[in-house]
Amino acid sequence: RGKFGLGAKMALIWSKMSTGLPITVSAAQAVRKRAKGSRGGREEAELGPLVLSPTVSRYVLDIDIRRNEPSVHSEAREPNAEGWHGAEVSVTIAGAWTYYRAKVLKYLQQIAVITPYTRFRLRYVPAGAGGGAEGSTLGDAGCSVVPESKGILNLEFSRRTNTMPPRPRQVRHHPSSVDLELVRRLASLSGASSLAAFLVRDFDCVSPELADRILAEAGDAVAPEAPPKELDPRGAARLHQLFHEIRFPDPDGRHLSPAGEYNLRLGILKEIAPDLVATCAGEPRVADGHAFVVEAGLALGGREVRPGINVYRFANRIPLLFEEGSDVITRTARKRINWSSYKINQTTDRVSVFVSIVSTKIPFKGAGKEYIADDVEEIQHAVRAAIQLCCVQLKSKIVRQQAAREQKQRKKTLVKYVPDVARAVAAFLNTVAQRAKDKSIGACERVGRTEGL
């Protein structure tokens, strides 16, 4: 995965270092035009049909590492005969496939869980194996694996839904999340006429009244009527100090783009196929001035799920595979949840815990960005609350299942002993009838003797 914000550039550099081959980028747009319709005498815009691009743009390029510039080998527009749309990035890399195969496949499966609206394919061709058959096309569930021929692997994950996560909206910086250098930079770039206008216009959750209060608290360190470009280091330091002392309203989270409870549930059902599943999406919360959203899923049973607590971690819809023992999600799932109170045996039951954290600033530990810090209380509480909410949902389903199983077992037991009970009842009734008959005969004999006298 990308590190230090480089992302695809790192994949391209890896490709260039290992194979020397360029990257191929293909793209074609699809636009849904609006059709005007009249309803009730008023015109309303309605969504029209999807208009596909007649061509596919294809670029073959690599990067000039010394100059840090792209080097385009070829560019072309090809007919879009198949009606394809989207974006595709293709790189060819060399690596220790035998050693990392399990991690690569696990990563792709988790990507398919958190993004069920995507369709992607992995094709592995070992050196000297030649071409091989292309991968098969999937239906609506799981992934397909074409049988390996000479070590060739074709793996494809299907799209389950067309529902995309909401697009993040651009927002201003929250005052409690900025550092001193950012305060200086924003002030130097601002076009506001005064510091009060600068605080209201360039920061989120700052009203004119709150801006006046901040400037009053700043005292003689700032000049409220002066333009922000004239803010000196002393004034910037005082504003930064107040930003972290004053309690601001929390950001609303509209700038985040979580996967969504619906998509998370579909992804779990598609890739894990569990017996029971529960999902939830928490409300936006704030840690150190940065909004975050926690989504969680809990599944019992499923394909290739081992007994015990199996944790799947995501940060901004990216799977985290390594150093899970130090992660806040793993520690919360295994140490801070009383599973037995929810009718779940954490040793023998096959439990899958999915937790996705979305934020503008994920508190990673270490340069590798492979696990989330366990020392942020707000995130701890949010992760625990999300998992517990899923547990509550599953508990009701488990109780109903147990009641149904017990009723079925009682019925089975009764059916098993019905013949014996029937024979016993019949024997008892026969005995009662025989005794009644004997008593009746005895009574008749006594009456006969009495009449003879």
Could you provide a short overview of the structure?
The protein has 453 residues and is an alpha+beta fold. The protein contains nine helices and 15 strands. It has three domains: 8-157, no CATH class; 175-243, Helicase, Ruva Protein, domain 3 (Orthogonal Bundle), CATH 1.10.8.50; 261-399, Ribosomal Protein S5, domain 2.
Secondary structure tally, helices: 9
Terminus-to-terminus distance: 116 Å
Q: Helicity range of the residues? A: 25-40%
Element order: H for helix, E for strand: HEEEEEEHEEEHHHHHEEEEEHEH
> What's the multimeric state?
single chain
- Mean pLDDT, as a whole number? 82
Report on this model:
This protein is α+β, with helices and mostly antiparallel strands and 453 residues long. The chain contains nine helices and 15 strands. The strands form four sheets. Strands 10, 11, 12, 13, 14 and 15 form a six-stranded mixed beta sheet that branches. The chain is extended.
Q: Which terms would index this structure?
A:
3 domains; alpha+beta; six-stranded mixed β-sheet; Helicase, Ruva Protein, domain 3; four-stranded antiparallel β-sheet; 453 residues; Ribosomal Protein S5, domain 2; single chain; 25% strand; 9 helices; extended
